[in-house]
Every structure is written in C-alpha cells, then in structure tokens.
Amino acid sequence: MSGKVYLVGAGPGDPGLLTMRAAELIAKADLVALDALVSNDIAARIPKTAKVVYVGKRASDHALPQDQINQLLVSEAKSGKLVVRLKGGDPFVFGRGGEEAEELVAAGVPFEIVPGISSAIAGPGYAGIPVTHRAYATSVTLVTGHEADSGSTGIRWPALAQLDGTIVFLMGFANLPSIVENLTAHGMPPDRGCAVISKGTRPDQRTVAGTLRDIAARVAEAKLETPALIVVGDVVKLHDTINWFEKRPLFGKRVVVTRAREQASELKRLLEESGAQVLQFPTIEIVPPASFSSLDVAIDEQFDWLVFTSTNGVAAFFSRLFAKAKDVRALAAAKIAAIGQSTADDLRTRGVNPDVVPERFISTELLPLLPADQTGLRTAVIRAEEGRDELIDELRRRGGDVHLAVAYRTIAADYDLEELRGLIATDAIDVVTFTSASTVDHFFARLTDEERTGVMNRAVLASIGETTSAAIRKYGKAPDVVAEKATIQALHDAVVERVAGVRAQ
Questions:
Q1: Catalytically active residues, by annotation
Q2: Residue 295: which residues within 8 A CB-CB, separation 6 or more?
Q3: 8 Å CB contact between 350 and 328
C-alpha cells in the first residue's frame, strides 16, 4: 500500500487564504473528496486527472453518509491513491476531521492533517471584528449552534452566558432566535453586541451588526443567506471602525471579464482585490495559426523592422523562436516596434527593449514614428490572423516590403451561457470589461437581441482602448469607460473611478 489520505482545510472561501501545503496537495491528488463549503475558485484547482467525489453536507442533506465517507477514504488509499479530503475551514473545527482520523488509524491507513484557516476567525476578521482585543475580550469560545434549540445539545448555557469574552457560533444561523433566548435567559445583557456574517471572506459577504436585543429582527430584514456565523461580544462594536473588506471600492459589484481565460488572471485579481465579484466569460480562445509558415519567415529571414501588435503575438513569436533552437540574438539586425505598453513590457521581460512604442494602443499610431519613405525597408508585422490592415496598407503605400506574420488565431470560446444569462435577466451585471475588438464581437455574438439590449441598458461597458471602443460602438453604444493607457492596470483603475468614484492611487 502506497496510498495516503490528507485531511485538508480549504479555508473559509477566499482562495487567497488557501495554504501553500493545501494547494500543493490538491494539485497532485488522485482523488478529492469535496466538501460543500469549498469555494468554486478553490475547487477549480483540482486537476482534470483527479477523480472528484462530492461528499458535502448541508443541514440534514448529506450527499454521502459519514460512514461511507470513511470507507471511501480507506478503500481509495489502500488502492494506492493520494486522497485529499478537502474541507471548508479547518478539518478539526466542527469538521469531523477527528472522527475521520480515528477511522484511518483503525484501518492502518497513513494520513496527514493539513490545518486550514477557520471561518470562526477569518469571517469576523473580514467583517472588521477582531475576536480578541485588549479593551474588549481576552478570550474566544467556539460553539456549534446547529442544535441550539434542542434540550440535549450539551451546551452549558448558564456558563456560556456569564462569559465576558467573544463567543462565535458556527452552523447556528437557523437557530439564531434560540441562541439569543438562551443567552439572555441565563443572564447575558440584552445590549451585548451581536453580529451575523453571511458568506464570510467571499465577494458576496454581508454583515449585520446589532445587539442581542435586536439582531434577530435586523437579520430577518436583511434576508441574509447561509452559510453564516454568529459573533457575540463587545468586539462587535469595532465593526463600523475596522470594516475594511466591505468598504473596498468595488465591493458588491459584479464584473464580467471577457478576456481569454489564460489571459484573464491579472485583471481578475485586480478587480477582486478592489472587492468585485468577478464572472469569467472567456469569449475568445487563443490558438496557434493553421500554419507556422508566415511566422517562420519573420523568424528565419532578415527584416529591418519587427512590429509586435499584442502580448499574444510576443508570446507566440518567442515560443516559435525557441522551438526552432534560436534566441534573441536572431533579432539583432532588426529594429523592434511594440504597440502598447503591455506589449513593450512583455518584450522587455524577454530581453528585448523596443525601439519604438506609440503612446496609444492603436497600430496606426506607429506611423509617425517610422520613416516616411519605406522604400527598400522590409517590415514584418506579427499579429493575429484576424486583424486590421491599415498599418500594413499604409506602409506598402509608402514603398515598403511588408510581410504579415500570423502568430495566432482567436476563436470563439466554448462557454456555458446559463450563469451569464441568469445574471442578465435579473439585471445583476454591473460592469463588462473588454480588452480587444475580438472580445467585443464574440461577446455580443453569443447573446440574443434582448440580452444584448439588457447589457447595454444596465451595465457599464469598459474598454481598454480606441480599437476596442470602435468595436463597441458598432453595436449602438459608446463605451462608458475607456482606459487612459492600454494596460490591464489602467482598465482596472478606470473601472474603479467610474463605478466607485474613487481615483486609484
């Protein structure tokens, strides 16, 4: 037997709180027994080669009874698999991790415990509520609240009600009235602070703060959803002061990112750091050209100028260059032009400092920076198969020998429209970001006329530059936001300024 079981805590939901050890084990798992409270972003880390068994539990609805979960872990490990039992929060904080570890010991199966950040600590932290504070609480008590209305819970209410520190109830949202009643009936002051945190650390987190006297009514009015935890104690008074997470400029806003999935990570990260709930809708997919022949000409022959029009072109060119056992020395005789700062930056990371970079992300902006007389000059324009020909046509008109080097193609991505259509139907999209003309065309092509109108009327349309803006205008509306520079950072900053009225620092 070479298999092993890892009881892994996935944290409270924010993928940034996943531990390095947890990420490492998820990446090499043969089988993942997946808990209900593991966020979609973390579940997306599971490799396609791994078998996933959903074993989630919500209230009385158990996808797989605990004894069958135990048997699954034992049998799969004994068959030689690396098994990850992936749990929300920490496996030893109301997660039955201790019970599962006992079963593994009894079966002689090797295992490891990988602690995770518990929602009992992280949830209040993201709501601006420190569970301990020298001025308010010198202790914190964790309590399971899912049976708080039962007479046989084992909760010692008289002792609990006398505590001056912080009490955190997990899995007790449905029993909030019973928890309040038991605490106050046994002597806790009704004006003691109390907060309920729904979906803590996630983009749709919501916090309702009050006192034991009014918290049930406040929560009912706010219509909070599970999962939620309850915090009781004077530390709740700090919520309004330290509430950093819900005060971020894009908090509560839903932003659609249309960029190709392999390119979207930086924009997604920036938007999420500003509080947005990001829906990735990759309208395009970057694929190799049907033939490398035109790109090989740009690599193998001598040119006076090499013009890179995008970061995709840079990546494709250098991938092919290295595949042909060449490196940057092959470019020594040519001058290099880059359209856009991002393209220029990508070239610099590969050891090439471009000679010319126009201020705006438009290919024709390069023309004033090139010799007016192109007679005798050979230029290779490295770009997508689907591109605008104004630059090429003008250089040829000036007498130049211009070669189009097709580095990649953009095709429509295969993407499930169900979630997007549901959000459009409920006017739940606040911003749609576009980073190229192709993302615009492919996005609107996937929608019906009614859906397209709904997006135009409700959402802020954000463009990375003039070419992208022109593509948006073709559909009958000017973009609401245009980035000052054709960079992902500038697009993010423009969205923040437009939506939240905050100029990025």
A1: 35, 57, 171
A2: 289, 316, 317, 320, 382, 405, 406, 407
A3: yes
Q: What digits encode the pLDDT tens for the residues 210-260?
A: 999 999 999 999 999 999 999 999 999 999 999 999 999 999 999 999 987
Computed on alpha carbons and rounded to an integer, the radius of gyration of the chain in Å comes to 28
CA nearest 258: which of 426, 438, 460?
A: 438
The mean pLDDT of the chain is: 91
Q: Which CATH number fits domain 288-412: 3.30.43.10, 3.40.50.10090, 3.40.630.30, 3.40.50.720?
A: 3.40.50.10090
CA 148 to chain CA mean position, Å: 36
- Tracing tokens 């490196």 back to the chain, one arrives at 327
Does this chain's domain 4-117 share its CATH topology with 121-247?
A: no
Phi, psi of 308 (to 5 degrees): -105, 125
For the segment(s) 254-283+413-500, the CATH number from 3.40.50.300, 3.40.50.10090, 3.40.1030.10, 3.30.450.40 is 3.40.50.10090
What predicted TM-score, i.e. pTM, was given to this entire model?
A: 0.80
From the centroid of its chain, how far is CA 166? 32
Task: Indicate the fold that domain 121-247 takes in CATH.
Answer: 3.30.950
Q: What is the DSSP letter of 223?
A: T
User: Which of 254-263, 343-352, 354-363 has the highest mean predicted lDDT (pLDDT)?
Assistant: 343-352
Contact between residue 258 and residue 439 where contact means Cβ atoms under 8 Å apart: yes
Q: Which residue has better confidence, 95 or 32?
A: 32
Place of tokens 């520079």: 485
Give all strands of the β-sheet with 206-211 in edge-to-edge order. Answer: 140-144, 166-170, 228-232, 193-198, 206-211
d(CA 324, CA 296): 9
Q: What is the pLDDT of residue 364?
A: 80
Q: Of all helices (H) and strands (E), which one includes residue 447?
A: none
Beta-carbon contacts of 171 under 8 Å, excluding residues fewer than 6 positions away, are 94, 144, 145, 146, 227
- If DSSP states are collapsed to H, E and C, what string results for 423-444? HHHCCCCCEEEECCHHHHHHHH
